[in-house]
């Protein structure tokens, strides 16, 4: 039976970095890429030097080109993976959507995450455009805003909502925390916000009817059920996420309360031996620099496992 060292599922920064790292030790790998990316539609990426404020699509394309030009042991398969079957800790059978089947020694899941939007009409329209999940990734270009909002809607509540509000306060004169009529969230948030500068932060408890276009194209308006509205330069919120693909169920992977695959740093091994999870699917901190780090570290760990099996005398 012919084996390839590693199956990498996902062609974002984490998967690409894993492939590049494995190539440095002459490991063979196939990177499966179905072109599904959480930041699809985003015009810019940030916090990666020389790529700051440049296109994520161009970054992925340049990264792939760089790997193919310099290394011969990495293959790219532009196809979805439909099934991963574990035969042993060092044998995984990977089935793709075109009917192809390959055998691998290890698996690195870099599948990214799928967002589950809260029940607020218009949320999906503004997600990634005027609703930002991270104010290190987005928001700087909107600095100096008169007002910005935080959607204090689970899973964003309590200390996390206050943290996001303080991030927003660096970029806006005033910050409104919207609890969307949730009394429990409001009760938890009020004592926290009371410790902050009162002229800067406020809580809005009314139920949100919908989000609509703002007075300008680069703003969003929060409409309430009572017919009034408030315009914001941007909103901040993290929706609940789940790992993309069927692999959590297929492999029996443990997950966190937030829906991510349980895979602790520094090497990102999952609860299933031989399987690693990197990038957005394995952390609530879904930013490109941490994806790059996790992809590199997991590849090093996978390399160590493969080499130990290869060179240790029985």
TrEMBL record:
GO biological process entries: cellular response to toxic substance
Pfam family, one: Pyr_redox_2
Entry keyword annotation includes Ion transport: no
Record-linked InterPro entries: FAD/NAD-bd_sf, FAD/NAD-binding_dom, Ferredoxin-NADP_redctase_2
Protein keywords: Flavoprotein, Oxidoreductase
Domain FAD/NAD(P)-binding intervals: 5-288
Any GO MF annotation of the entry: oxidoreductase activity
Family indicated by similarity: Belongs to the class-II pyridine nucleotide-disulfide oxidoreductase family.
Record PANTHER family: THIOREDOXIN REDUCTASE 1-RELATED-RELATED (PTHR48105)
Protein's recorded name: FAD/NAD(P)-binding domain-containing protein
Annotated organism of origin: Periconia macrospinosa
